[in-house]
Design goal:
Elements lengths: L14 H11 L3 E5 L2 H4 L11 H16 L3 E5 L7 H7 L7 H16 L5 E3 L6 H4 L2 E7 L2 E4 L4 H24 L4 H7 L8 H7 L5 E5 L3 E5 L18 E3 L1 E2 L2 E2 L14 H13 L5 E5 L4 E2 L6 H5 L2 H19 L4 E4 L16 E2 L3 E3 L7 E3 L1 H13 L24
Parallel strand pairs: 1-2, 2-3, 3-4, 4-6, 5-7, 6-11, 11-13
Antiparallel strand pairs: 7-8, 9-10, 12-14, 15-16
Helix pairs in contact: 10-12, 12-13
InterPro entries: GH, Glyco_hydro_1
GO molecular function: beta-glucosidase activity
Family: Belongs to the glycosyl hydrolase 1 family.
Length: 399
């Protein structure tokens, strides 16, 4: 199968099928992204609106609502229109702000009557349409490599540079103090108007959590060049003294560390004014392996264990007062991953890439269906324990 993103896995012809999978599993919400280029091929309103793109998302949103699922929409997921990149460098130019605003306004105008949860930096139409605006931030959790204060400080700096880079401006109006210290004059200054506009500019926080790292303080005489990677002055590693922080998944960046989701929720609660939180992504991948039979490929025990363990720790965070309002598994289907393409699979449902994109429920899909039924789809009523298993679960639907 060609590795392009014309439609990805969900095409106009199988919207009903995919929404049916979600409904059958007992899910009540679906998070998806809108492609800027699909609506505005040239990136600008002046270049014309692709009404077929509007129709596609209208059909998806309407089908979700008919099936009792709430749409959560991300306006930007790394797909800058190529025309804007060619014209002025895309995100490297402040000119993109007005063009993104026009794109966001277009989405609010066409979909805002039905979509009430948006993941975006902009806030037009929020009051008029009774919607909620948030920002999805991806971050690792960072464990100090030792109990030494310098390593504890290093872990906090690592969080500042990966998480606080976005969280501090919207909760305080400025970048983290550690970034100001270590980046210095290379870090832009906010005007008072910008700072006031940023501070409190959200209704909820979306957090994408997959993995964790150990953090330690580097040698004082380090002469590494200035860069985003080096500026925090942190050695972030996946092991200490030969002991990994957790098992590695297919992706070389994903080491499984369930406790991190608990610690990250408590950290967010305590540092960032106790916000409403949605886990907007959480999941684990396996390699695509053409030598496996379909039955073997569907037996994804690693994914069952990943979700069980993470949800146990998330449950503990909620019981400790974290305001977690929702959870989105990544992902419903095997899909095109930015780094790995179709070579790795995150899905709860298997997609046959070599055939007609037929969907098959994996063991994890059936585990999730039972979990959702037990929890009654209520974040305050998560029913999962460390010894939960799915030995007695049968394939309850076929696609």
């Amino acid at each position: 199968m060609a590795e392009d993103q014309a439609y990805g896995i969900t095409t106009p012809t199988n919207i009903q099928e995919d929404v049916g999978i979600m409904k059958n599993m007992g899910m009540d919400s679906y998070r998806f992204s809108i492609s800027w280029s699909r609506l505005l091929p040239n990136g600008k309103l002046s270049g014309g609106v692709n009404m077929e793109g509007i129709k596609y998302y209208n059909n998806l949103i309407d089908e979700l609502l008919r099936s009792g699922l709430t749409p959560f929409v991300t306006l930007f997921h790394w797909d800058i229109p190529q025309a804007l990149v060619d014209e002025y460098g895309g995100l490297l130019s402040p000119r993109i702000v007005d063009h993104f605003k026009d794109y966001a306004d277009l989405c609010f105008m066409h979909f805002g009557d039905r979509v009430k949860h948006w993941l975006t930096l902009n806030e037009p139409f929020t009051a008029d349409q009774n919607g909620a605006i948030g920002l999805a931030v991806v971050t690792h959790w960072f464990e100090p490599a030792s109990k030494a204060k310098k390593d504890i400080d290093a872990a906090n700096r690592a969080l500042d540079f990966m998480f606080g880079w976005f969280m501090d401006p919207i909760t305080t109006g400025d970048y983290p103090r550690s970034m100001r210290t270590y980046v210095g004059s290379r870090l832009p200054q906010f005007t008072k108007e910008q700072s006031d506009s940023l501070n409190g500019s959200y209704d909820f926080i979306g957090i994408n959590y997959y993995s964790a790292r150990y953090a330690s303080n580097p040698l004082e005489n380090s002469s590494d060049p200035e860069s985003y990677i080096n500026d925090p002055h942190v050695n972030a590693t996946t092991e200490v003294n030969g002991k990994p922080i957790g098992p590695r998944a297919a992706s070389d960046w994903l080491y499984i560390y369930p406790k991190g989701i608990h610690d990250l929720m408590i950290y967010t609660k305590e540092k960032y004014n106790d916000p409403a939180i949605y886990i907007t992504e959480n999941g684990v991948d396996e390699f695509t392996n053409s030598s496996l039979s379909l039955e073997q490929a569907l037996n994804d025990t690693i994914r069952v264990n990943y979700y069980r363990d993470h949800l146990c720790h998330l449950q503990a965070a909620i019981q400790s007062g974290a305001k977690v309002k929702g959870y989105f598994a990544w992902s419903i289907l095997d899909n095109f991953e930015w780094a790995e393409g179709y070579r790795s699979r995150f899905g709860l449902n298997y997609v046959d890439y070599d055939g007609a994109l037929t969907r098959y429920p994996k063991r994890s899909a059936n585990w999730f269906k039972t979990f959702l039924k037990k929890s009654q789809r209520n974040m305050k009523n998560i029913q999962v324990s460390a010894d939960d298993n799915d030995e007695d679960i049968k394939l309850v639907y076929q696609i």
